[in-house]
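Per your request, structure below.
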């Protein structure tokens, strides 16, 4: 019987074909994935624009506000009080028409929504309608960038502390399954159903109103301390209550979730086999428990990083924290659509980029995952 053998040239050819097939598969996957993510962003942003405008109801509110404001300004102006009523009415109508044109209310809503969408996708955030930055600018980009550092400080401090402390404590609890602390965490996990701003109100009542040891709100004392050290201490003092309210509202459920993942993998047969072989417990945790949970941990960490951008809507408002969350809350109340759309489009892009990159990260940390398959 003849045995088929493969020459070195044929082996090189097979490897080259396999490599080209892999690259083609990855290229196809990248193109399709980016296209689907872009379509998702377009749909999400357009829905945000429609919802923010309430299907045109906000236009009616703005027209009524313009009409009342201009009519009252003419009525309070002594120079216009002596005018003929017909002339005054004509001037009022012309002024109203100019203001509506300036705000784009004379353009059909479908066309304006399309313009909002195209500008948002190009990150041309435009000008706010009612809100201004501290420097007096109406540029949405400047308003967002001005509020961003405060939000990154609050959300970054609280969420990163929550993430790392939850993993550390959950891993410790998984080693001591069923002890008193494990039961305490399980019993307190339903408390995470309470929103952080609700905890914030109680913290203000206790530490600010009753004990008077921490400030009620804001980011720094008024007037701000002149030197850098005192300014930093003041910011830290104002950061304690809002940061703690964000941490305590999610702490127990976060620890419970990670603990559950660690317990699931620690009960696998290969973990028992590793223990039987006498491997050190630290090596078992690192290799057989932590590594299989890496995709979940990386996903949670990535989502935490991009949610730093959004801020805490109600918590920042309760504590008068000058961040993006409070800015977005005010924009919703003032029907300032450019601010709402600007915040949403940036978050959408960050989320899409994160989802896209996570597919490649999963392939790196988990050999079972193949990109494009």
């Amino acid at each position: 019987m003849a045995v088929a053998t493969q020459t070195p040239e044929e082996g090189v050819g097979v490897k080259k074909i396999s490599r080209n097939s892999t690259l083609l598969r990855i290229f196809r996957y990248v193109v399709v994935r980016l296209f689907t993510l872009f379509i998702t962003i377009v749909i999400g942003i357009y829905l945000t624009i429609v919802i923010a405008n309430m299907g045109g109801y906000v236009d009616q509110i703005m027209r009524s506000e313009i009409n009342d404001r201009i009519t009252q300004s003419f009525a309070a102006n002594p120079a216009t009080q002596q005018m003929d009523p017909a002339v005054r009415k004509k001037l009022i109508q012309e002024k109203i028409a100019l203001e509506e044109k300036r705000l784009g209310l004379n353009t059909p809503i479908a066309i304006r929504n399309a313009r909002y969408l195209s500008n948002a996708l190009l990150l041309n955030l435009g000008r706010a309608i009612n809100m201004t930055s501290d420097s007096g600018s109406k540029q949405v980009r400047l308003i967002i960038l001005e509020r961003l550092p405060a939000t990154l400080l609050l959300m970054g401090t609280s969420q990163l502390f929550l993430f790392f402390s939850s993993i550390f404590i959950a891993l410790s609890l998984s080693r001591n399954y069923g002890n008193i602390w494990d039961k305490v965490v399980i019993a307190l996990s339903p408390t995470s159903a309470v929103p952080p701003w609700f905890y914030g109100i109680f913290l203000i009542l206790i530490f600010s109103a009753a004990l008077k040891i921490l400030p009620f709100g804001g980011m720094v004392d008024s007037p701000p301390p002149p030197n850098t050290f005192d300014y930093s201490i003041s910011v830290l003092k104002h950061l304690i209550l809002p940061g703690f309210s964000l941490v305590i509202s999610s702490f127990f459920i976060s620890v419970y979730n990670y603990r559950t993942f660690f317990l699931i993998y620690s009960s696998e047969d290969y973990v028992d086999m590793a223990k039987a072989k006498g491997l050190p417990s630290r090596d078992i945790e690192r290799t057989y428990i932590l590594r299989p949970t890496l995709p979940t941990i990386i996903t949670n960490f990535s989502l935490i990083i991009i949610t730093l951008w959004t801020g805490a809507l109600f918590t920042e408002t309760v504590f008068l924290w000058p961040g993006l969350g409070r800015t977005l809350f005010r924009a919703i109340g003032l029907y300032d659509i450019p601010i709402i759309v600007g915040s949403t489009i940036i978050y959408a892009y960050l989320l899409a980029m994160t989802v896209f990159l996570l597919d490649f990260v999963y392939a790196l940390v988990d050999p079972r995952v193949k990109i494009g398959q």
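The CA atoms of residues 113 and 337 lie 10 Å apart.

Regards,
D.
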